Amino acid sequence: MLRNLNCLTIDDNNNDQTKDSINYEVQDAETFRFADHVRPLVAANCSEYAVAHSNVHQQPVRQLCEISFLPHILQTMSRLKLTQILRLQSYAWPHLSKQAGHGAVLVSAPRSGRTLSYVPPLCQQVCIMLTKHRSVSKLGFEGPMAIVLAADLGRVQRIGSLCNGMLRKAKNEEWLTLALMVPSAFTPEFFYRLLNGVGCLVATPAQLLWLCSNFDVKLPNLSFLAYDDVDLMVPEQLQQAHHKLKSLAQQRPQLVITTQSYNVKLLAMLRDFNDKMLLLFGDMLEAAAYGGVRLRISLLKHESKLQNVLQLLEQRPPLEKRTAIYCHKDKDIRELADVLELHGYCCLPYYQSADWEVREHVRRWMDDSCGELLLCTDNCPELDMRHVQTLVHYSLSDNWSKFKLRHLALSDNLHNQLEQPTPKQLDQQTVSLVLLDEHNNKQLPRLVDFLQQHQAVDERIVQLSQQLRTRLQSEKCNEPTLCDLLLSLGHCSDSHCEQRHHVLPCERELPAGLPYCGDVKLQLLKAYSPTHYSVRLLEHLPPAGKWRNLPARVTLELELQLLQSQKCVRHWPPRPKQICVYRNATGFERVRILCVAHIENVNLSRTDVAVEVQAMDVNTRRIKTTSGDLYICPEPLRAAPALAMDLRILGLVPYTGEREWHKEDANQCAKWLNAVAKPNFLQASIVVALSHTIFVRDLAAINYAPSMKMFVRTLNMSQQLAEKKLAKKCQLTVDRLMTLLNVAEIKLNDQQEEQQQEQQQSKTACLDYQKHQDVLNAGSALLQKQTRGRGRGNAIAQMALQLGRENRLRIEQEQQQQLDNKLKQLEQQPQLQTEPRTDSVQAFFDCIRKCDLLDAEERQLKQTTVTCSLPDPQFHMAMPKNVVRPQVSYYQTKITLELQLLLSDDNLQYEVVLFKKTNLGFWTLDTEPTQQCILKLPGPFVELKHFMRGRTVYLSVLKAYATSYPLEFSCYKFMKPHYDKINAYEEQQHVRAKHFELDLLEQGYVQKQKPQSKRDDELADEEPAEEDLNYCSSNGEKVERAYNRNEFELS
Hints:
Keywords: ATP-binding, Coiled coil, Helicase, Hydrolase, Nucleotide-binding, Repeat
Mean pLDDT: 77
Oligomer: single chain
Protein name: RNA helicase
Number of helices: 29
CATH architecture of the domain at 34-282: 3-Layer(aba) Sandwich
Coiled coil: 734-761
Region (Disordered): 1007-1036
Distance between the termini: 103 Å
């Protein structure tokens, strides 16, 4: 039955009115809408029947008064309108209320009351333990008393709210947390609460594993465990969490497992903690699969169905096996009964108009079938069959729920796996045969999905079900949207997900002007998760082009708002995929209709039809509204492209291993992006695009730095999420998405990208040698041209040309010799042995060294020739387009060479290498373009230290000898001397020399030199001389004094 849930005001400080009172009342400190977090029950899923198997006696309850729950728990249930016991709860509540040793596995459809079957007993047990703790100690306790593992964050929030509403604490127990949820990031407050005592801890398996890996979790008071919706959890994570709890629990807690489909592994988990077990099924088809029923599917034509039935009756005679045949209508019963009677079978047709005499006949058939075949339909609920052995589905039901309920007729013949079976039960085989034809196969895809979970299915049937599923979905008027989990993770494990899991051809057709590759500038509209944003495209940069503005109708919002002054016409009837105008709280906006409820009479205009729409311009949010808020959109506005679209970052998944993100994470990402200094813009590189979504590698915030007069990358979203431990990269997610979108595989492995960059740099460096040769050739030609016709200069030019030819010939001979040696080595190696991989960095520096030698030879050649306008021989590399030089300043001390590199952004990852003591290499990682510099040091160095502060990288290279090297870095245009540090170093050297001289003077090793006396006329003629403070040693050697900094500059 459908149950409406009222609002309930609760908070975490649910207290007693008195110190030791048990009369709990709800406080009004904070309000909480319970209906927003607890999904209502669905009539079709709340079965009035249940199959219960246990190894202990079960006594179900009929009324709520038969259960002795605490008053505040009953009060909370009453305010939630939970006043009638469902069949699942009538078995689960009394069994779980017996506490220690009693566990259960609940198998039923979603929204059928599974969670409410264990939450009241859980809260009851926690309150009892709190009462016992109060009588022993007034202090807190460590760890939770109950743990609930839920499948996703939405269930965590709902179950936590429900537990919080049914738990209470005393006024003096402010240290106690009634219900605690695990946050998305490390927070001290969470661990403080966990240490002070928790009533119920609610988390996902991934969160529990993350918690155990980051904190020394102890569970001395754990008494209740619950795994909610285990079939939606990642199996590996569930197993790891189960083993972790098994090792941490100091006592055997009660375990409750809820699931949509049964698995024999669940029974093994239950046995790990409890010995008094209950298997409770609200889904009759799952109970049949558990009880050993053999399900068979036959696909054939309508004329061949009767022959298949006759073959089954020959294999399983009705005299030995009680047989029931389900038909769709009474007409089918008459036709089938006539044919079966012609073949000698006795039939008992049960029509919807059956009288009392027929019902008595059916009751006698239930006691003793006497070889009769019972023929009936789904519209006979008064039939109470439980012990049928052969069940034939001559026609399928109108819906899936009725088809599952048919298997209730087999319930008394199901094997109880908690008890030792008898020989008679082992010999007894129950069969359920499903006959499908061309007119009755709409339930085939769902039936195949169910069978694949429990047994092997013929591949031909699987392919046919996939074709049928595609055809049925294409015929639907309301085309469901793409699954959000599928777009985020590339995989959806929810077998009952109602969203679409394949891409339509229309979604691959991109609107005119929508970019599908290159880079784009964006405007952020809304953040839905750390990897999902609503954006507006501003500019586009093709792979080999320039930035261009994307076409956009800038007056669109103004035109929509002007509609308020006009008399708008309501949009009727609403159809999926239509564009209309939606009236929100502030004005009008364009929306696209996604889903419309069934409309019985289209000619009668209504304003209460439920409609789901998606915004097109303000953002891409989905809105559930009614047809009364939709108006006709003018044709010019209807043809305009959407201004907003979705953006998703590829390859990022939650750090804790969950399948979805916290809402707080999306808000945090929006704060990071909005906190970037203005002016700024967002930039992303497109990997693949659909008509409504673009998938990008990363999202970066870029703003203008006035001091540097350039745009710098202020925020890198992937890097920021990784540093805050909110997300991590996952190549499997990318592969799944690319498979879904039929795009070639894309790698996110940073090491492979680095190797490709190194190889590209190595190739570029090797080509630099040829460029230097071209420079020499051009210089020689120019020199020959300018010196032609001159006597002495012409001879020098000829000498220079000859030297250049000899140098080139020598270098070519050396390279040819090296190549021959390598070929000989390869010939000597076995054929199966592959060539060793050359070190790209070593090849890179070897090429640099060759280029430097050529540069030195060219300078020497320039010194021996006449002055002419040769090309600039300064050392430079042929840089790729994606590589730039950072600004470098340098100075030296007595023992180190200090370098400072100014990068375009902070928090960049980089690598720095000291190669063969004389070469220094630096480059950044995961940046576009790469910032790189290669230096040839003036002397040998032995050690390298580095660190980054802000946007500056500080490098300190330790010298092999404590001496001052001549710093000749003038050939590097991107390097500038640090004059302040150089002058300070020189002044420090002079001060040390002066102190050394004074020390020699005091020790008597040197004597102060006296100035020679001169005549007065000589003094008058000469200019005033400076004060001479030179000294002479005892052996007459002159020692000059040290100049200070000012004197040094004046000299």
